[in-house]
Specification:
The complex is a heterodimer. By secondary structure, chain A is mainly alpha-helical. Chain A has helices spanning 3-6, 16-23, 29-64, 83-90, 92-125, 130-142, 145-155, 162-167, 182-211, 214-222, 227-255, 259-264, 276-285, 290-318, and strands at residues 67-71, 74-78. In chain A, strands 1-2 form a two-stranded antiparallel sheet. Chain B is mainly α. Chain B starts with 15 loop residues before the first helix and ends in a 6-residue tail after the last helix. The chains are: A mainly alpha, B mainly alpha. Chain A: InterPro entries: MetI-like, MetI-like_sf.
Chain lengths: 325, 294
């Protein structure tokens, strides 16, 4: 596979829809039977996905509006109630979690996009060593989040962590436990997150940079624009669609934040790093309160859904030919 | 670092001043690249170095920047004192089977969505994309209750079923993009010759879509190998823990055995690191699928 194929643009414009529609006026028997065949091929996968994802999502929604009784040999749902949501929405824990998750997402994603784009600009200028750098960047992306969380918890350890050893002289020789304070623990977690996910953004941004039409940049250069102007006035605007997709991917992932706080901070100190997903999970599986837990999960899903709609809007404007149903 | 070497000087002789500026830019690029490489590599180095330190050296103050008395004791303790061998086995069984199922179901679904006149195709694709981005915590409780009902908690089949369904949407997206890029002519000839639909997919499409199938397979495998939330929810007894659950719950109440954890982590990351490094082009193409407009 050549490098050109590697950064392979999805062929979204070559939608079979267009071809199908042009012939749909005269649907032959063959077409009808291949429509059946299409469903025969697609339905096992789609039914499986529906059974394990869509059905539970709906079920979870029902649960969030019910009284859930879990006993030794089963569970039952009773009544339609808004009780779970009223408990959740008025609790300090939920209010804190939603503010924390939102702010954390905004800050980490902004840092990742700026850093990732900068790294992509560096990588673009590399020639022989670019392949090696790409390989290195893939490692944080591929690492098990739980492992990276353990790694950073060792780095941040308040007694023998390497960060403490570096920082404690600045603190008059006293130990520094970054995971001990609300703000510093949040910042420490953000650093761990940025380390793991910035490479993903950088790779996507690099793919976008490589795909930019060279002649426009060349024309700007001939017109006498310097590299700085070319970047801000020509390349960045052209790169924006790619970056916006990366942003939305990251926003959606970041709202599901769970593994990192579970291992690194346990949501603490206090509840200062407790994300919506962690809170929802704890309410369900530590407190065994499935109704309120489902309500927390539903509120997370609701926020993600809003983000999805934004995503769809951006996405549709980019692949105009695809969404014609 | 030997991996980031400055490329050879540009052969074309240029006027003195622009060349000096170009050299300056080149130096800045190389320095920046080195900083990026250090930012990425140092934490990884720290993990591997710690894996080879004795328990005392792990907590040394000041830290040992290089293991002075390297030992493999941590690897022994991961496999003997802890149940890490079992976790690897569990992860391998679940990830391999789920990946094969994802490809088996996904190839036919993606073919149908790429080539056959399926109604509501755009809606199906959008729904799949949204599902693949949905926060899994919303699935945890209903899946847990469902699996509990049918007695599949702490089993392979429960986790395999969940992982297959969770990874199908993204796999279908990747595969469909590859299928769309394959010229239609050969399939049409096969159809004309009376080859059955299944045979057409197997003998015409599969060979041409190998890179895409690879990419989809690697993504599904990495996702299964690294998934934590669902595994923690469904399979948390010691005999059924996967690697992430095992590593998250390693250790006692008061101490965290970092040396052992990182020895186990290094072993757990080895297959993924090799897979990703060897097939990095396939991985990059999968990462950028959907993000870059064609």
């Amino acid at each position: 596979m050549s490098a050109d194929q590697a950064i392979h643009p999805p062929d979204l414009d070559n939608s079979p829809k267009k071809r199908g529609r042009s012939r749909s006026g005269t649907r032959s028997g063959l077409e009808r039977s291949s429509a059946r065949l299409g469903w025969a091929f697609a339905s096992p996968a789609l039914l499986l996905v529906a059974a394990v994802t869509i059905f539970p999502i709906v079920f979870s929604l029902i649960m969030s509006f019910s009284n859930v009784n879990v006993t030794g040999d089963g569970f039952s749902l009773s009544g339609f109630t808004g009780h779970n949501f009223s408990i959740v929405f008025t609790s300090d824990l939920w209010q804190h979690a939603i503010v924390f998750t939102t702010l954390y997402t905004i800050v980490t994603v902004i840092v990742e996009i700026i850093l990732g784009t900068a790294i992509a600009l560096v990588l673009e200028r590399l020639t022989a060593s670019r392949g090696w750098m790409m390989a290195l960047l893939l490692l944080p992306w591929a690492i098990i989040t739980v492992i990276s969380a353990q790694l950073w918890s060792y780095v941040y350890n308040g007694v023998y962590g390497v960060l403490n050893v570096v920082l404690s002289p600045l603190n008059g020789g006293h130990d520094i436990n970054v995971l001990g304070g609300s703000f510093s623990a949040t910042a420490a977690m953000a650093v761990a997150d940025i380390w793991k996910t910035t490479p993903f953004v950088a790779i996507i941004a690099l793919a976008g940079l490589v795909m930019l039409p060279g002649d426009i940049v060349e024309a700007a250069r001939i017109d006498g624009a310097n590299a700085w102007t070319i970047f801000w006035r020509v390349r960045l605007p052209l790169l924006r669609p790619t970056l916006s997709i990366a942003v939305l991917f990251r926003i959606l992932q970041a709202f599901g934040l769970f593994d990192l706080p579970y291992v690194l901070t346990g949501g603490g100190p206090g509840d200062s790093t407790e994300s919506l997903a962690l809170l929802g999970w704890k309410v369900m599986f530590n407190d065994l309160k499935f109704g309120p837990g489902a309500a927390v999960a539903a509120s997370t899903a609701g926020i993600v859904l809003i983000a999805c709609l934004v995503f769809l809007k951006v996405f549709r404007s980019q692949v105009g030919s695809e969404e014609t149903a | 670092m030997s991996t980031v070497t400055a490329p050879a000087a540009t052969p074309a002789p240029a006027p003195a001043r622009p060349r000096r500026r170009a050299d300056g830019a080149r130096i800045i690029t190389v320095v920046a690249a080195l900083l990026v490489a250090l930012f990425v590599a140092l934490p990884l180095y720290w993990m591997v170095a710690t894996a080879f330190k004795s328990t005392g050296d792990v907590a040394a103050d000041p830290p040992q920047y290089f293991p002075t008395h390297p030992t493999t004791a941590n690897f022994g303790s991961a496999f003997h004192q802890y149940n890490f061998g079992r976790y690897i086995e569990n992860s391998a069984v679940v990830s391999v089977i789920a990946t094969l199922l994802v490809l088996g179901f996904g190839i036919f679904a993606a073919y149908a969505l790429a080539r056959l006149p399926v109604r509501g195709k755009a809606g199906v694709m959008m729904t799949l994309l949204m599902i693949s981005l949905f926060p899994t915590v919303a699935l945890a409780a209903p899946l847990y209750l469902l699996m509990r009902d049918i007695g599949w908690l702490n089993s392979y089949q429960g986790l395999i079923l969940a992982y297959t369904a969770l990874n199908l949407p993204f796999a279908i997206w990747i595969l469909r993009n590859y299928f769309l890029a394959i010229p239609k002519e050969m399939e049409e000839v096969a159809w004309m010759d009376g080859a059955s639909p299944v045979r057409t997919v197997v003998s015409i499409i599969l060979p041409q879509a190998k890179p895409g199938i690879f990419t989809a397979g690697i993504f599904a495998f990495v996702a299964c190998w690294t998934e934590f939330l669902i595994a923690l929810t469904l399979d948390n007894d010691d005999a059924h823990r996967t690697i992430p659950v095992g590593i998250a719950l390693f250790g006692g109440q008061f101490t965290t055995p970092y040396g052992t954890i990182f020895a186990a982590s290094a072993v757990a990351m080895l297959p993924i690191a090799i897979l990703v490094l060897v097939f990095r082009k396939a991985v990059v193409s999968g990462l950028t699928a959907g993000a870059v407009k064609g």
